Amino acid sequence: MVRGGMRFVVLGSGSSGNAAVVECGTLRLMIDAGLSAKQLNLRLAQVGIAADSLDGILLTHEHGDHVRGLKIFLRQNPLPVFATAATAQVVREGGIEGGKWKVFEAGRAFAIGATTIDSFPIQHDAVDPVGFVIRHQEKRLGLLSDAGFVTSNVTENLRGLHGLFVEANYDEDLLEADTKRPWPTKQRIR
To answer: What is the third-level CATH fold of 6-189?
Structure first.
């Protein structure tokens, strides 16, 4: 948690699903929705957040572990969804509609109320993956998920933060022992 008007809560992190919530004053944003809608609602309730109190959803990229629950969750809660144009297109072509889609360009900042979201491109095998720096008042929180490697641009964007969340769950031994993933997927993850 970053103090001073900002709170960050992880709802789930890993290959089975990613989702978090950041609160900036009265603004509440979910970052990704990779858990089932049932789990999203359950975990939000466990941390004292009503789903209908969310102001929007930020998407880092289109992979299932980041958007799995989005379709049903949006049906229940028609929220604005903030994504790059390419990510929005792939997600919507995958059958996820609903909500109010708000497109931003990777590497550009945009505002939601009094909160500024800086986006920056990351290296990952997705169509247009991004990381975020969320700025509210004088606080800066960085969010980085599924970065294949850290570039100088990523490093530069993550300087001077008050908090940083990095989703990283790679374990070579566990990957090798995994019998469910096909070889090409294992190569991609490596």
So the answer is: Metallo-beta-lactamase; Chain A (3.60.15)
